[in-house]
Amino acid sequence: MPGCMGRPLIPVITLLLGGCGSSGFVMPDALESQVDPSVSFQQLLASPDSYQGKMVVVGGEVLKASTADGGTVLEVLQLPLDEGQRPARERTESQGRFLARQETFLDPAAVGDRARITIVGQVTGTRTGRLDEVEYRYPTLDIKHLHLWRLEDYAERARSGPWWGISGGVGIGGGTRTGGGISIGTGF
């Protein structure tokens, strides 16, 4: 029948495209237009007061979570974000630290130390605190949206992307039956 040749490909294409999706970071529409993507963490760290009131996207690893004045303050080791807004794996890529405040109570046990997060936050200025033996000037943010990354999200990233492979095998059955085969596969 004319026009039927492409129909068997529809399920295959659907499966391939479905595998490209991810359960990653989704920025709320209401905040997306407010974020200033031109502000880097280096700029924010160098001059936090210059960016007061700006909405930024930052992420990293939670070093400490504590409650204060009915809210929660997170001390975060900044890590660069990838194209999916996921923090880098390596702590050595950090450019510094920041403090992020959630106005409502966020149980520190729910966030947990070493959790990886991405935040959409409004820059509020700086706060000076002790970091070992030195005074450290932390950029401060009010959290408008918080995404907590699961360990599985990092495993998915390690497996994502195109791949290919070649495999083969030999089978020996009862009697005189033997067989073999080679397969070549690709994936997305």
TrEMBL record:
Cellular component terms per the entry's GO annotation: outer membrane
Alphabetized InterPro entries for the sequence: OMP_Slp
Pfam families found in the cross-reference section: Slp
PANTHER family, A to Z: OUTER MEMBRANE PROTEIN SLP
Protein name per UniProt: Outer membrane lipoprotein, Slp family
Originating organism: Nitrospira tepida
